[in-house]
Design the sequence.
């Protein structure tokens, strides 16, 4: 009976030690996850801002290119040429994105 009682005490001590160890690990992992999420939030915010600025810049560059080409070739040719140029630029961007995902 004494051996069973000692076994129960040792099992309880082991469970307590494992619980303390698990609590420490969980706290460390939670802190690590919080730091990671903070970095992800900042990165997402910066990416969103960069996309907005890029789209605005491409829009202004497109308007400028349209006006330059329109003066030389007319509105129809300018629209078609600029449309194909922007489609080619989008295709290159998608290709680079796909290539980067493959690595």
Sequence:
């Amino acid at each position: 009976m004494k051996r069973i009682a000692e076994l129960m005490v040792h099992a309880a001590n082991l469970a307590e030690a494992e619980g303390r160890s698990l609590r420490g690990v969980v706290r460390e992992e939670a802190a690590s996850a919080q730091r990671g999420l903070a970095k992800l939030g900042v990165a997402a915010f910066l990416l969103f801002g960069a996309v907005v600025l890029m789209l605005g810049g491409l829009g202004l560059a497109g308007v400028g290119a349209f006006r330059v080409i329109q003066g030389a070739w007319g509105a129809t040719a300018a629209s078609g040429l600029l449309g194909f140029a922007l489609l080619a630029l989008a295709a290159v961007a998608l290709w680079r994105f796909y290539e980067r995902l493959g690595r």
Q: What stands out?
A: The CA atoms of residues 44 and 50 lie 10 Å apart. Residues 2-73 form the longest helix (72 residues).
